[in-house]
Amino acid sequence: MVEELILQQHHIKATANRITILRTLLKSKHPLSMNEICDRLETVDKSVVSRTLTLFREQGMLHVVENGNECTEYELCKSSTKEHDTDQHIHFHCIICKKTFCFENVSPPGISIPDGFKQLSVNYMIKGICPSCKNAR
Question: Is 0.90 topped by the overall pTM?
């Protein structure tokens, strides 16, 4: 099962709840908030979802997306190691439907940071109106 392989790559013990949460993230075409995950998993307690997301994040399995609306969203990181994130990309947040989209083939622009700092990740968010909302107007 692909979920068990992903968990194994990140040194996480496969449990039924972890597999279920991972499967939900795999099926999603956009980052999900914790509430969206919980809504899709009516049988999994919210505290279990929270602890699992924390574990996934600590093991480098998740990207945490701050959409700027005081809502944290989560998406799977396609990197197989937490030491080097090769899955950095731009996100787009629609101000009308509130969905966040991944522009997986668009890398954040390179920036220079002052000496002495070490960049670990980039959170690049564009806000605007998605094509569906634009066409509905």
Answer: no
Helix (H, G, I), strand (E, B) or coil at 25: helix
- The H or E element that residue 11 is part of is none
Q: Reply yes or no on whether the pLDDT at 85 is more than 60.
A: no
Query: Cα(13)–Cα(3) distance, rounded to whole angstroms?
Result: 11
pLDDT at 82: 54
70 has a pLDDT exceeding 80: no
φ, ψ for residue 18, nearest 5 deg: -65, -40
Query: Which of the listed CATH numbers 1.10.10.10, 3.30.70.100, 3.30.430.20, 3.30.70.3270 matches domain 2-136?
Result: 1.10.10.10
Q: Which two tokens stand for residue 51?
A: 């602890």
Q: Give the 3-state secondary structure of residue 4.
A: helix
Separation between Cα atoms, residue 112 and residue 29, nearest integer Å: 31
